[in-house]
Amino acid sequence: MRDKERLERDRLSNRTGSYHRYEPVKDPTAVAPNCPSYAKPVDRFVTTEDVAAIEHKERAQDYSKVMEKHEGRRQARYKREEDRWAALDAKERAEQMRLDRLQADPICGRKNVGGAPFNIVSQAYEPTAAGQKLKHHDDMVKFRGELRSMNLAARNHLGFNPITGEQVYPIKIPERPQAPASTSIIG
Questions:
Q1: If I label 69, which of 31, 32, 84, 93 is the partner at 20 to 30 A Cα–Cα?
Q2: Judging by beta carbons within 10 Å of its beta carbon (0-12, 13-18, 19+), is residue 180 exposed, middle or buried?
Q3: Which residues on adjacent β-strands are paired with residue 125?
Q4: How far apart are the C-alpha atoms of 97 and 89, rounded to whole Å?
Q5: How many CB atoms lie within 10 A of CB 132?
Q6: DSSP state of 168
Q7: Which of 33, 32, 9 is nearest to 22 (CA)?
Q8: At residue 46, what are phi and psi to the nearest 5 degrees?
Q9: Exposed e or buried b for every residue in 111-121, given b needs 16+ CB within 10 A?
Q10: Residue 82: its H or E element
Q11: Helix (H) or strand (E) holding 166
């Protein structure tokens, strides 16, 4: 059987005409020595020490990339936190400057003065000109209310008996409150 294959191979290699000429190849997977991918058998394999060094170098590069990424994130977070604290400090300083300015200016920051000259705890007017003015204003409001009720009563015949024609309930006209002497109030 081997002889038949060899005989056929010989006939194919010696054939003439426009046929493909058979060229024997010893190893079809071998690389030709003049090819760029050719390597000597010694260069084809890397020794164990070299492999360990190469892998260590690759791991070190990967680790340094990860550490650079972490460091970049840390720096960004650190800067953001520093900016936040700087903004909080600036806000606090601005508020303190505002308070100092208000306390230094007697017109802007009326120190411990109520909005009205009236003590809500004791229900009394303050003994100042502003307190007397407020008291007179409140008395005038009460006076006008009593005067209005008296006018309504008179127009609706309150206290008047139409059959007998006499006044049953007397209508009392309220007294106008006097303005304090220190201020001239027109009311």
A1: 84
A2: middle
A3: 118
A4: 12
A5: 19
A6: S
A7: 9
A8: -95, 135
A9: eeeeeebbeee
A10: helix 48-104
A11: strand 166-167
Query: How is residue 165 written in tokens?
Result: 């024609």
What the block records as the tokens of 153 is 């009563």
Residue 180: partners with Cβ closer than 8 Å, 6 or more residues away: 129, 132, 133, 135, 136
What secondary structure letter does DSSP report for 51?
A: H
Contact predicate 13/23, CB 8 Å: yes
Q: Which SS3 state, helix, strand or coil, does residue 17 take?
A: coil
Prediction pTM value: 0.37
For the chain, how long is the longest CA-to-CA vector? 165
Nearest-angstrom CA–CA distance, 132 and 117: 9
Per residue in 34-47, pLDDT (tens digit) is: 888 888 877 777 66
Structure tokens at 105: 């200016």
